[in-house]
Task: inverse folding
């Protein structure tokens, strides 16, 4: 599967968004590892605790390779230039459900933006790319969770997501302190566009063909 890109020739200073292939994920794993370490160091756990090192973070990303190859996970990155070696400044993932009764839904995960690149709308741009990827794969319902009271809540609400509720003491921050999480969902409407990987995913999961676009 070839890499999918938005903004093929961005203007100077404009981030380039790219959906990674399995090979692209492996090549970008060290930069993604750096981004994950910086994000955890800044107080966002994302499933990890303080002390996460670059080697372990990079290895975690490389471990997603088989799922990316099989179109079970879609990973988007933002780069600060037009070259593949440009610095990764943000990322987001879409995790598709393989259960027979849940193939209409997917989860948004690991939305991160480097501290130096925040405040420029990059989180919203990455989220939009992820939503479009899910829609093109036939997904009609997206879900996610985020730490209650975090800045990410504002991003999701402004993007049209609906709060479903909160769960107390759901996960620990990097220091080990437990925090509540807020659950969000977003419905997607049917459309006519389908990502090339969708057919392969249907063959793997046996899902019926369907397509969708954002509300």
Result:
């Amino acid at each position: 599967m070839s890499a999918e890109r938005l903004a093929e020739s961005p203007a100077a200073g404009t981030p380039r968004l790219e959906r990674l292939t399995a090979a692209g994920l492996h090549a970008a794993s060290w930069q993604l590892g750096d981004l994950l370490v910086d994000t955890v160091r800044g107080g966002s756990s994302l499933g990890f605790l303080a002390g996460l090192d670059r080697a372990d973070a990079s290895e975690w990303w490389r471990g997603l390779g088989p799922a990316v190859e099989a179109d079970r996970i879609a990973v988007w990155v933002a780069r600060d230039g037009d070259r593949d070696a440009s610095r990764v400044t943000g990322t987001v993932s879409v995790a598709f459900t393989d259960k027979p009764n849940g193939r209409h839904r997917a989860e948004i995960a690991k939305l991160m933006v480097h501290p130096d690149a925040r405040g420029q709308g990059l989180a919203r741009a990455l989220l939009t790319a992820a939503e479009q990827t899910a829609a093109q794969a036939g997904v009609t319902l997206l879900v996610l969770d985020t730490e209650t009271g975090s800045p990410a809540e504002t991003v999701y609400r402004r993007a049209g997501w609906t709060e479903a509720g909160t769960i107390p003491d759901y996960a620990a921050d990097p220091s080990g302190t437990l925090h509540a999480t807020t659950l969000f969902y977003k419905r997607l409407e049917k459309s006519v566009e389908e990502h090339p990987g969708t057919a392969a995913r249907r063959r793997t999961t046996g899902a019926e063909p369907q397509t969708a676009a954002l509300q």
